[in-house]
């Protein structure tokens, strides 16, 4: 067979194999087009799990009459025009393949009107022929896309569709992810004529936690710790669940966004998992909803057919930045002051100010502390504050440091008087006191102590800090000169 250029119809169907995996893929592409058009309200109607009908209606800027047919052509887009645009993509779509691919495997109707037009226009395309007909129609400003009989002309693809319930669950999950990315957009989802989801737009400065709770559940909201971390042109915002209270149900909540684009990135997931590893079991996963903002020139989104993955130009910097941001919030939640008295000490508790409560909408900022990350230390910048030293920040902390803390906390044994006078270390000052007898180490960061008949829990980092302060504080005896 000689080498030849494939006809457009065949090329579109090949592209559809990458872009249109299932009805949920169609919904994702069309809703992202609506968001790129500036829509503030999107209505999604689904019938039979998307196999029969997918209708997306928005109030965006619309498409002009003379561009309707062109919009259904392959590689036709208004979002990029040069290679420079491709290297700094800020829109969700940019390839110009979605509408052409979808129309090649369905019966597609595109109705749109701009604010400058007196009437709306409708374009219709069906299957492999790709013949577009345009006629006038009634429609408000915005766009409506109807996808009928998906895969009607590719029986093999249609045969691999799952049950109606399964396909709709995939669509529902896509809408949940998009709703978490755009709190400022009203999104309504219905299936077979029944409204299933209604996400009302949250005004700027409004209660984002209400939508967060509606999507992720109250269990996640109760355990959520707010994050706001910044260094240079990197910004990390969102929520991470307290790893001490992570359940298998919460572990399914793992939503990550890069410049507003939903992602499934292994580098980001690894950084979050590493920050939480001291508090998670081997079979546990962290729960989070995080938003990473980065200079578009420093990230390449054109690396995956469905745009699920990205490539960072400085992946190590991004990894350590996310690790540091998540770790700093967990440190604040775990650390508690240690009063030096004879009363039993309470277990370390979460600081209330760091928890996200329903009805509130502000990010708790990290307290002013010293940098802690073992590999990356963010420079002072607006909105970012470094965190305090914490032994759990070191990946290798488990047995070795636990043994050191055991030695630090044990009651000193009485010293034998030396036979010959020898220079000795100065004794601890009077303001230093024994913490009691160590019974056991709990979760490698707390010690269970017995003192004067009382049982108490002591945070090991706090104990180390007080011991150091006691050694550095002058006592009643004069300071001994070094020999």
Structure keywords:
483 residues, alpha+beta, Heat Shock Protein 90, Ribosomal Protein S5, domain 2, formyl-coa transferase, domain 3, 3 domains, eight-stranded mixed sheet, five-stranded mixed sheet, 13 helices, 18 strands, 28% helix, 21% strand
Commentary on this structure:
With 483 residues, this protein is an alpha+beta fold. It has 13 helices and 18 strands. The chain has an eight-stranded mixed β-sheet, with helices on one face. Strands 9-10-13-11-12 form a five-stranded mixed β-sheet, sandwiched between helices. Strands 16-17-18 form a three-stranded antiparallel β-sheet. Strand 16 and strand 17 form a beta hairpin. It is elongated and about 90 Å long. About 16% of the residues have low confidence.
Mean pLDDT, to the nearest integer, reads 80
Q: Give the full name of the CATH homologous superfamily of the largest domain.
A: Histidine kinase-like ATPase, C-terminal domain
Question: Which class of the largest domain in CATH terms?
Answer: Alpha Beta
The largest sheet, given as strand count, sense and whether it forms a barrel, is:
8 strands, mixed
Mass-distribution shape: elongated
- Uncertain runs are 336-402, 422-432
How many angstroms does the end-to-end distance come to? Answer: 93 Å
User: The CATH topology of the largest domain is what?
Assistant: Heat Shock Protein 90
Strand content: 15-25%
Number of strands: 18
Instruction: Give the count of structural domains.
Output: 3
* SS content category: alpha+beta
Could you give the order of strands across the largest sheet?
A: 5-4-3-6-2-1-7-8
- Give the radius of gyration: 30 Å
Tally of DSSP helical segments: 13
């Amino acid at each position: 067979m000689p080498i030849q250029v494939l006809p457009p119809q065949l090329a579109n169907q090949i592209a559809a194999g990458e872009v249109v995996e299932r009805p949920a893929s169609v919904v994702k592409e069309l809703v992202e087009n609506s968001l790129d058009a500036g829509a503030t309200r999107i209505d999604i109607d689904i019938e039979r799990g998307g196999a029969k009908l997918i209708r997306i209606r928005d109030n965006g800027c619309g498409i002009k009459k003379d561009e309707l047919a062109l919009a259904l052509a392959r590689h036709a887009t208004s979002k990029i025009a040069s290679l420079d645009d491709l290297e700094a993509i800020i829109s969700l779509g940019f390839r110009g393949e979605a509408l052409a691919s979808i129309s090649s495997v369905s019966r597609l109707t595109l109705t749109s009107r701009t604010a400058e037009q007196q009437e709306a226009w409708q374009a219709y395309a069906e299957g492999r022929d790709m013949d577009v007909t345009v006629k006038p129609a009634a429609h408000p400003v915005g766009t409506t896309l109807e996808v009928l009989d998906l895969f009607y002309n590719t029986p093999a693809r249609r045969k691999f569709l799952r049950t109606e319930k399964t396909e709709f669950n995939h669509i529902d999950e896509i809408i949940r992810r998009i709703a978490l990315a755009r709190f400022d957009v009203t999104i309504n989802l219905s299936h077979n004529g029944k409204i299933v989801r209604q996400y009302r737009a949250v005004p700027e400065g409004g209660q984002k936690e209400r939508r967060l709770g509606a999507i992720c559940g109250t269990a996640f909201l109760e355990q959520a710790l707010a994050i706001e971390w910044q260094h240079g042109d990197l910004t990390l915002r969102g929520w991470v669940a307290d790893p001490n209270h992570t359940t298998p149900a919460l572990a399914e909540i793992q939503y990550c966004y890069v410049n507003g684009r939903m992602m499934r990135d292994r580098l980001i997931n690894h950084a979050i998992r590493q920050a939480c590893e001291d508090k998670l079991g081997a079979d546990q996963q962290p729960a989070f909803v995080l938003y990473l903002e980065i200079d578009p020139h420093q990230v390449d989104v054109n690396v995956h057919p469905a745009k699920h993955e990205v490539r960072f130009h400085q992946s190590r910097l991004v990894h350590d930045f996310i690790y540091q941001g998540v770790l700093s919030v967990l440190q604040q939640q775990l650390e508690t002051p240690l009063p030096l008295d004879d009363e039993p000490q309470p277990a370390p508790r979460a600081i209330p100010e760091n928890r996200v409560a329903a009805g509130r909408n502000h990010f708790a900022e990290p307290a002013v502390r010293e940098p802690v990350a073992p590999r990356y230390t963010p420079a002072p910048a607006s909105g970012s504050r470094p965190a305090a030293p914490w032994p759990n920040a070191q990946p290798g902390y488990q047995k070795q440091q636990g043994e050191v803390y055991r030695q630090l906390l044990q009651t000193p044994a009485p010293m034998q008087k030396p036979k010959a006078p020898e220079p000795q270390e100065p004794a601890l000052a009077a303001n230093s006191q024994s913490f009691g007898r160590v019974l056991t180490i709990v979760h490698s960061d707390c010690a269970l102590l017995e003192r004067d008949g009382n049982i108490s829990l002591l945070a090991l980092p706090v104990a180390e800090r007080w011991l150091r302060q006691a050694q550095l504080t002058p006592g009643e005896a004069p300071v001994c000169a070094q020999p």
